[in-house]
Amino acid sequence: MADGKAGFHKGTKAKSLTRQKSGFKRGKSAEPERPAQPPKQAITMSTPLACPQCNSRRIWKDGLRYPRSNQGSAVQRWLCRECAYRFSDPNFKQLQKAFNGSDMSEHIQRILTKKLKTKTAILSYCRVSNDPAGRVSTGQPRLVQNLAEVETRQEKAAGATKTDQATVKGKVIDFLWWMEKQNYAKETIRGYGSCLRALLHRNADLFDPESVKEALAREKTWSQNRHRNVINAYTLFLRFSGLSWEKPRCKVTRKIPFIPMEQEIDDLIAGSSRKVAAFLQLLKETAMRSGEAKRLLWTDIDFERRLITLNQPEKNSLPRIWHVSTRLLQMLNALPKKSLKVFGDGPINSIKSTFIKGRRRLASKLQNPRLLQISFHTLRHWKATMEYHRTKDILHVKAFLGHKKLDNVAIYVHLDQKLFIDTDEGFTCRVAHNVGEAIALIETGFEYVTGEYTDGGKLFRKRK
Asked: What is the pLDDT at residue 462?
């Protein structure tokens, strides 16, 4: 730097002259090799003598900076080749005085001339000050203790948060075990646990009912049934914890279920895998819930008399027994018998995920988006509607589904009236003159209408 040029290695010029005198050549070229040199830098009044970080003189210009405090004037930036430290022109303060006669604040000068992401800068200019006015400390050693105290308080606060979360999760586990001891259904325990975890995922404090209400108010993607289930789960959790709350209003509007055509259900069964097809055919003929069908045992099936018995119903329903088709029995008999349960010991979600993938594929292949609306429970609604349409007996439909109240099956009367309004409600009539003819008519689906006529025959009818 003493010769007026910046950025050259020490001794470079002397080595070059030595090579020229000794006649050093490379290849066929007669000229001596010239060492690589950095860009030439002009000597200005603001050229620094050394890097403020490592005191190296090997520095390059690194562009210009236009700070707002300089009113559009440029500030030279420098780069150290030894430590890669970037810094501004240290003579910027004197230049600003020369141009506009104003002085820079110490804070701006400190930012422009210090590397902010170094340990020295952080310890020197980011400590907590004892000054009540909130001024930044200049690096007194006694203030290191303040920073350590702040970090300690933050660690304690973080530890307290983790402990609270662990306590809440432990309370939830105790609550689920309490439900197990109270003989709640496994599906109910699983659903309530899912509801409480959903509240925790939304940063709700389970020990603060107002926090839970805020989380419920912010949630806009849940259905009405989901809101109701979460409220019921949290109400039972508060009762277990010895607390109470004023439940928020939740009105569930009962929707009209989707009733597909039988051909659409058959297409879905034909396009599914062997296990899923047998599962769907069972739901179609018996109107079981999916959970009831999943827990069906091989001992519940009578292949000789074509009977299927349900002794483990869900939702406190009544046990049922059905007379099924030969096709369904053949499909069930083709399944592997590796477990006591017909559909294995795995979770119901494995069958459901396979069904959803196959349903999406068939809907695209057949160009029928109505298939996407068919779920496991849809088959229960379809079978109930068909049973009422066939028999016009609401009590038969109630017993077929296992319900204890007529209110739960009244919807199927309305569906039958709207879905089959344009169909022919005519009957086919037959007369039986003896017991053999009457038995034959009953076996083909005819029903007895009235008593004997003058010729001794009995009248039977069947819907067309």
From this structure: 77
